[in-house]
């Protein structure tokens, strides 16, 4: 099972588009990526590149409901070893817990928080990468894919009880009714999916304790290798992006990474980086995404980037880009 590495999200997209007669070059247009590049160099696309890929797919297929369709086409095997582990678990609860533990083995374009409240199972979708106008696609794909995977694992229906969505109601909700078949609330403050908590006890049809133990061991091995191989600067950036508004000091970040502050400084120097440079680069990238893909005000963006005043944020942005906030937003609109 050593070769059952998880299939990357981009690999999945390229394969599904190829089945529609759309080549990789057209899907990757404008991203700076080429087919095979990521496997060769062990790289992962950045969120803006994923956003471009999604926009390309929507335009090339002319299917506004592509997210739902791709979710239906997703298979357990697309998760690699993580899928085989899920397929051999005893119950859906065991499968979900293992997936949550090792979800970092697969690429994601948003994060989710699962919790139980008042006897109901909630999954909240966080737009940590500020996908903006493609967030609808991402949510539709996630919910559709969840239905597909849970149903294939248990060989029984997996109902959605409610959907709470931050985006406006589409003109045609028929695809929602067909696929999700539940009450749907648009223009909400959060993206929330409500599942039937009783489904967690559904048995997995191909449960096998020995295979599950072996697959879980393989997942841990891959996760440990991933932790060893990843650059410290990438770990820091991922933490900053996944915790909007939280920009810890170097000492606080060192504590989060369970290493000493001096060790953190030294290892960043070895990577030709500094903590301040990572903070500035991350803030700059996030600021550009917020300006280009959201309607947030400069004050709101500054707050999310850890600035106590909008004037400090304006000065920092000017120093990073030699542009004003207004100029950057107008340039994208044009």
Automatic annotation (TrEMBL):
UniProtKB keywords: DNA-binding, Transcription, Transcription regulation
PROSITE patterns, per database record: HTH_ARAC_FAMILY_2 (PS01124)
InterPro entries: AraC-type_N, Homeodomain-like_sf, HTH_AraC
Pfam family of the protein (one): HTH_18
Domain of life: Bacteria
Keyword tRNA processing included in the entry's annotation: no
Ranges of residues in domain HTH araC/xylS-type: 230-331
Coiled-coil ranges (or none): none
Protein name: Helix-turn-helix domain-containing protein
Protein's organism: Aromatoleum toluolicum
